[in-house]
Amino acid sequence: MSADSTAVSGVDFVGVPTRDLARAVAFYGDTLGLRCSVHRPERNFAEFETGNLTLNVLDPERMGIGSFQPNVSAIALHVGDVAAARERLEQQGVSFAGDIFDTGVCHMAFFADPDGNALMLHHRYAPRETTG
Q: What residues pair up with 45 in beta bridges, in sequence order?
């Protein structure tokens, strides 16, 4: 049996809008320490690798694909230790919203990139419980 080529089989990248590509490249590359796999300023985008998902940082207005609207749903960036990662980012000038949040299964710390896109540091310390 052949696979259905029209079925969704994963997520290749998530778009992260910016108004200033150079500033965003510095933030995602230098501040967050993500590897930049593609940087095409002449085409108004760059891509950063997180290990399992690519962040496609793009200027939608310059690309002619829409207006700028920051993402309000946080992208959860996995780290081994939320407190240590938060401290390192705070030393680089990143501001966080509130204290580290403990859900009973994970730690989260909420912040935003320079364009206001919602991000969080995330670490699951207990097994995920599923229903159904």
A: 40, 58
Q: Tokens standing for 107?
A: 């730690």
The closest of 63, 61, 99 to 82, measured between CA atoms, is 99
CA gap 67, 18 in Å, rounded: 10
Q: What's the pLDDT score for residue 130?
A: 75
Residue 16 C-alpha from the chain's centroid: 7
Write the CB contacts of 116 (distance below 8 Å, at least 6 apart in sequence).
70
DSSP string of 48-86, one letter each residue: EE-SS-EEEEE-HHHHTS-------SPEEEE-S-HHHHH
Q: Please state, in angstroms and rounded to a whole number, the distance separating the CA atoms of residues 127 and 101.
A: 17
Tell which residue, 21, 13, 30, 112, has the closest CA to residue 68.
Answer: 21
Phi then psi for 93, rounded to 5 degrees? Answer: 95, 5
Mean pLDDT by 10 residues, the chain (132 residues): 79 96 98 98 97 96 96 97 98 97 96 98 89 69
What CA–CA distance (Å, rounded) separates 71 from 75?
9
Structure-token pair, residue 130? 């599923």
